[in-house]
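Entry 14. Structure prediction run on the chain below.
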Amino acid sequence: MFAAIRGDLRAVRERDPAARSALEVALCYPGVHAIWGYRVTHWLWQRNAKLAARFLAEVIRKLTGVEIHPGAVIGSRVFIDHATGVVIGETAEVGDDVTIYHGVTLGGTSLDPVKRHPTVGNKVVIGAGAKVLGNIVIGHGSQIGANSVVIKPVPPGSVVVGVPGQIVGPDGSATGAPRTQSDLPDPLGVSLYSLLTRVARLESREREPNADKVIRPPEAGVWHGEDFSI
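Output returned:
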């Protein structure tokens, strides 16, 4: 038990630059409190004290803003950052060294009493507001972008963004340079840029020799820096 607690505190200090000490993490991080409370409720659930487990889980939800079903299986050194709004369903499985940001849902898509929640591999990062739904597997080392909706299996080491979630490439962890959440590509922006480039070329062909009169070429208006105007 004490080894697990030390691992939880160490995980937060490694992944959150705002954490100044183990004591601060133990006293002030609701995500850590939620994990510790879950371990108690899971122990009760496994010993068939299901009503007590659910009641305690409800108390923990009110105190921390995190709802973890006692039947879920959660690995070691899982870090729930900022905590608020995280929901983890009954048959969900979460591996070791996973980072989950606020607003994440590991939810089900079936009403049958079967495995209906996701299985998340080791060292996965799930961005704020992301929804991972159904009995799918998120491969080891993957990254889920903020506000993505993932409803299909994800191979190991992938980057997923968008609604519905699209695999846009490897996360770079194999080369020692994993992407940050702010560095994930945008498939919609890339698609719009490609389309407007094609339209601009077609306009240029039609207006020759007045190709310089093309209105708003793609370089002027699609997904350059902070600009997303069309």
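The longest helix spans residues 187-207.
Filed with the rest of this week's runs.
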